[in-house]
Amino acid sequence: MFRFSLDTHTRRWRTVLLRLELLLCLLFVTFAFVPTPPVRAAPAGPTFLWTGSGPDPRWSTNENWSGGLAPQPGSNLIFPLGAAQLNPLNDFTAGTSFYSIQVNAPGYNIGGNGFNLTGYLDTSFDGASTIANNISFGSMGTFETVVSTSATNLTLGGQLSGTGVGLSKFGAGTLTLTGTSSNTYDGMTTVGGGTLVLNKTGGATAISGPLTVQTGSTLLLQNSNQTATTTPLSLYGTFNLNDYSNALGSLAGSGNVNLGTGTLTTGANNTSTTFSGGITGTGNLTKAGTGTLTLGGTGSNTYTGTTTVSGGTLSLNKTGTQALYGPLVIGDSTGMSAGPHTVRMQGSNQIFDTSTVTVYGAGVFDLNNFSDQIAGLTLHSGTGQSASVTTGTGTLTLAGNLTLNVGGTGTVGATIGGRLDLGGATRTFNVADGAANPDLNVSALILNGGVDKIGPGTLQFGGTNLYSGNTTVTAGTLLVNGVNSSSAHWLNGGTLGGTGTVGSVQMAQMANGTIAPGTTGPGILSSGNTWFGSAMTFQVQLNGTTPGSGYDQLAVTGNVILGNATLNLAQGFTPQVGDVYAILLNDGTDPIEGMFNGLNEGASFTTGGTTFQITYQGGGSPRSLRAGNDVMLTVISVSFRLYLPLVLR
């Protein structure tokens, strides 16, 4: 049986219904019990039975009713099995009130003017019937539906309206809300059994207020965007998007979401909720708004579409299973919106190992002291704010490569902090060149693998790294400002700089490359065995007379082979005659092998109006020219004063 009931205008009945509704809601939300319809009082007013025996289908035609008398306002109307006409047409003035309507047979298609329902609507049949009229709920309360069997299917095709009134769907059958006008009732919609189908068309919405789907019940879409974007959904049954897309204000509960190929967007009402059920399908999930959505519980999320966090925080807190199986996108693709947009782990292994993670400007990927593995990581520099990855004491393991793209103006570089595991393989760090310097700053401790730096941008390492695989600089610039001494560094066309410590340095397969100590200004770079090739360049900034702060210096522990490399000086000030610059320090007593291109021992050369003399035997103990094994430059003449722009890397 299909029953709709609305509170009467009497104070006593309204009080009973409201108290009962509050009690039921408390039971639904707290214990996720399936609700049952309330006990109703006997129908008020006279009852009229439809026969359809008149010459037309009008409600006002006397012959269409048993007893030959048409109903009056406030009556109870019954549409039974066996009527001669199944298309009753309400021709009473729109808004005329009736107390109750009963549809007790399939095949009815009731239409005409809208009416005001002050009592209830009952339906009891196996099959399908439709009421196309607009229905207004004239009193405070809840409009209730009971479907007695799974074979019952009632469609409401008009507009449902009312202030402070909700809709409850009970029973095993199906209730479909369709039509081209949005439903405007603003109370709670509860699915307490069977299926509620939402199929408004033409941009209309079926649900404008809060929505609850109880255990054993189903909410089914047959069109996209069926709820208001502010609708909060408490889900304990099933929400089947059926390949359509929909936006919600929030998502809570422990039920199941079947996305199909659709996209579910939630969070626009800026509240914080927890959903501990499962999400399936190949579709997508988008977290919007400023609140926090927590994906918790033990139910698996197996949907393979993209999870996008365009606002607020997505908290991952599954137990014994992963929260995300598909790609994860965090932040604003333009790098312009206010952030942060955050994904925060509340446990380890929340993301499936084959998932990729993309973090845009204002996006934050926070492992929150937990650990996880991903297939690949893409970051974006931004405008005013940028992508950020932080692990705390946890570890992010890369099973794929890392890419840095430029977003917006690219004036703010992306960052990675904490611990970064390369998964035992050589990972490509592809860094684009934006306005930031560096474009990507990795202060994280890096371990277990190797690095191939490609792309024209600047990558900076600031941690005490433990990985022992090779570091190859193929393009752009790698600045090592921390400790990278366990890795051999190969120059394959790019630039190696910084103020930290690296392992051995050499040229890869006769490729070119540049060693340029310092970052945006002069600095001291320390290295192990260093072997220059003829295609390599040693870039030195001269902005003062103090090593590190005034000019660049390479401090080598081990052997030095210059291999006819090119020495390139960039002056940012005018030196004085007699100034000495120890541009390459060689530890121990082993001599430097080879020389810079065209510069024999004691040779002089002029650049920027300043003439220098070079020695490969400087230093000594005490330090002096031609008494040791360092490369030193002495100013022997200055023909004019010239300031050249500082070389920035």
What is the number of E strands? 62
Helix fraction by DSSP (H/I, runs of at least 4): under 10%
Largest sheet: 17 strands, parallel
Taken together, the total number of domains comes to 3
List low-pLDDT spans: 1-34, 642-649
> Cα distance, first to last residue?
78 Å
State mean pLDDT (0 to 100 scale): 90
Number of helices: 1
Strand content: 35-45%
The secondary structure category is: mainly beta
Which overall shape is indicated by the principal axes computed on the Cα atoms? rod-shaped
**Radius of gyration in whole Å, from Cα?**
38 Å
Tags for this model:
3% helix; 14-stranded parallel beta sheet; 3 domains; disordered N terminus; 62 strands; mainly beta; rod-shaped; 649 residues; 17-stranded parallel beta sheet
List the helices and strands and how they pair.
Blueprint: E1 2-5, H1 11-31, E2 47-49, E3 76-79, E4 89-90, E5 96-103, E6 109-112, E7 115-123, E8 127-131, E9 135-137, E10 141-147, E11 152-156, E12 160-161, E13 165-171, E14 174-179, E15 189-191, E16 195-200, E17 211-213, E18 218-221, E19 232-235, E20 238-240, E21 246-248, E22 250-253, E23 256-258, E24 263-266, E25 273-275, E26 278-280, E27 284-287, E28 292-297, E29 307-309, E30 313-318, E31 328-330, E32 341-345, E33 356-359, E34 363-366, E35 372-374, E36 376-381, E37 388-390, E38 396-398, E39 402-406, E40 414-417, E41 419-431, E42 440-442, E43 445-454, E44 458-461, E45 471-473, E46 477-480, E47 483-484, E48 489-491, E49 495-498, E50 501-502, E51 505-507, E52 513-517, E53 524-527, E54 530-531, E55 536-542, E56 553-556, E57 560-561, E58 566-571, E59 580-586, E60 604-607, E61 610-618, E62 630-638
